[in-house]
Specification:
alpha+beta, Tetrahydropterin Synthase, Chain A, 12 helices, rod-shaped
Amino acid sequence: MERQVPHPSGARMDPTTILIPIAALGAVGLISSIRVLYEYQRGVIFRLGKLVRAKGPGLVFMVPFGIDRMKKMDLRIIALDIAPQDTITKDNVSVTVNAVVYFRVADPSKAVVEIEDYYFATSQLAQTTLRSVIGQSELDELLAERERINDIVRDIIDSGTDPWGIEVTGVEIKDIGLPKEMKRAMARQAEAERERRAKVISAEGEFQASRRLGQAADVIEKHPAALQLRFLQTVVEVAAENNSTTLFPIPIDLFAPFIEKATGVARGGFPATSDDDPEDDGADVDAPATDSGSLLGSGADEATLREAARLLGLGAGSTGPSAPEGETVPVTREEVADDERG
């Protein structure tokens, strides 16, 4: 017997054969349409090549099968190191300057659409701006006003990158390289400035010391005993250094009473000072003492003169080899004066 084959038109198709591929295709599309973005990330969505908007962070859904495309953007601050730039300052000094620029993506859509590579563009703009600002500044300003230079460079770069959706948060000049000749010149200048300050301080100290010494002299003038106390203090300081010889300055006027007692001559033949009373010693203060006769008094006899000369060590009144033993050689007033002048 022949077996009859049913006609295909009368057969029924199984629904599972259709649902399974559709479910698989939907699952693939669902998985491909889901994106997860971190907190510091944003996703710029393009639908069929047209910009839609930036999405994120968290779970992001897109139209699957290549209809929506997403480009991730990092919003964290980027530290851009500027290579050393050889430039010349306003006062014609060759310097080498390098800096660092801190920037971030503020608008992800502009950073993707407006410029091809925002990192490279920001780097080039920072280099040219740094060279331009350094060329408009003098070396002293560059060294002393670095913060102001940093602010100027940051403002210029920020205004240039603002259409790209880039925000410049800071610019810092790291190092300024100077030629060796300029470093030596600056070292000499600093040394001269230090010496000038030292001389000014020393002169100021001398001026203040002179004023103090003047005040001390006024006090000693009112209290003469203070001079003696100061003298004794100086002797103590000198003796503390283990010196074998100590000099004691003694006024010669202290010997005048002894000479006067031995010779009978007023004030021992010394000229009168302004502190002495002319009535007490009988000497004329205003009369100049020009010779030995006026110093010893005009009324002194020959014996008195010889005794005064012997006490003063002038050779008068001494016994010479030509004189007999125990006999005194007569000395005149003129001889005494000659010995004093000699």
